[in-house]
Amino acid sequence: MKKKTLSAVQIGAAKKKLASLERALAVIGPVMRGNIVTNGKRHPQPYFSLNKDGKTRLIYLGESRLAKAQQLSKNYRKLIEITEEMTVINMELLKNDAL
Fold first, then answer.
1. Range(s) of the domain holding residue 79
2. CA 19/CA 14 separation, integer angstroms
3. Closest CA to 58 of 30, 44, 39, 77
4. Which of 5, 48, 67, 98 stands 20 to 30 A from 41 (CA)?
């Protein structure tokens, strides 16, 4: 089975994409892992939920902190998305001794 190698042009394009992703990481802003949930049947209230060390931790958000928590959570998801894309590119570059 022949090892598939990247051409110099493909390596250059991959490195350009990595540089672009690194710039995107720099502007993400603060992050927070977790989810926004609502608690209560009669009067549902927004909470931020985090499972850490096997324990679920909740903080009450109220309406005043809800938008900020949503932004922090969105930033975290973007961070993970960029990291996953960078990992795939870096794996290809590493496999081709191009890092």
1. 8-95
2. 9
3. 39
4. 67
